[in-house]
Amino acid sequence: MLTQLALIGLLIALLPLSYVLVRSSRDKYRKLVWITAFLTLDLIMFGSFTRLTDSGLGCPDWPGCYGHSNPYAAMEHIRAAETAMPSGPVTFVKAWIEMIHRYFAMAVGVLIIALVVLAWTRRRELKQSPWLATGVLVLVCVQGAFGAFTVTMKLQPIIVVTHLLLGMALLASLIWLGSRSDPPRLVPRAAGRLLWPARIALALLAIQIFLGGWVSTNYAVLACTDFPLCNGEWVPRMDFRNGFTLWRPLGMTADGAYIPHAALVAIHWVHRGFAFVVLAYLAWFGWRARRFEPLARHGGWLLAVLVLQLATGLSNVVFDWPLGAAVAHNGGAALLLMLLVRLHYNIGLATQPASVMEQAADLTTRPADTARAS
What we know:
By secondary structure, this protein is an all-alpha fold. The chain is 71% helix and 0% strand. It is a multi-pass membrane protein.
């Protein structure tokens, strides 16, 4: 079974690998980094689709499905489980959703292994430490382990949220790696004043992603059924102790009782309230970033994605948690993270020594000079 699963992951990864490796361009490493980052974003969104369709236990073992590499081979077991519990988590469709997610994750792992190989074999040409790519490989291995724990520990909320946060950390690491592989940008020295605001923005977003994941994995999206009030009140009755007890089974308190509705309200209300803090700060930061030409495009995209996040977040409440809006909301959080990491990296260039900035200026002007000479 393990051999079959490995072959499936390899076959899926062959398409992007072939696109990069057969091309004659010399920046294969850079192209592979950005393709892997794009597919990691897709994987995060498909992971949210898996969670939101209750497919996380579609195959209740790991890494296969009832000991098989695909749901077709496990048909007998799946039908038996579905017959025994018709409203349970195991169905043929959910099994396929879960296994496709795993296949996709294995393919991303193969791409990251290829990145590490390129990083070590071309380390002199790339002029950057191959340990950076190796660290990403370690991170994806830890992420895979928590993917296994998500299943074996029956969707325990803190495990699911950790799995989400590790996926976001993997995406951020790939964006940073891709940014380092791009030619340096000429960033005005004055933009360096935004370095600490960028770090604060990343910290606030990380907290909000945790809170959003905590809402999703506890199924607390509809704990407040109206907006801007919560169940007709500005400050409803809430149970913070049970709501934010981290180590407990899904749907239960730490004492083994069913989790009260007031705890779900507390989870939802905190995420909603903190969202306005993050929204206001990121909007300010994006507006400031637009003042500097090399940062303006990403700052503008940051403002646009914030509008998308507000719209999808509200639609989850107003329109009773539509699947498309919920998946888009998760994807929007990942896009915000990508943009902030990219902005943070480019802002950091403004604080580099003058020699680095001169190299950036040379790389920026060289194509234009070459064109004029021809």
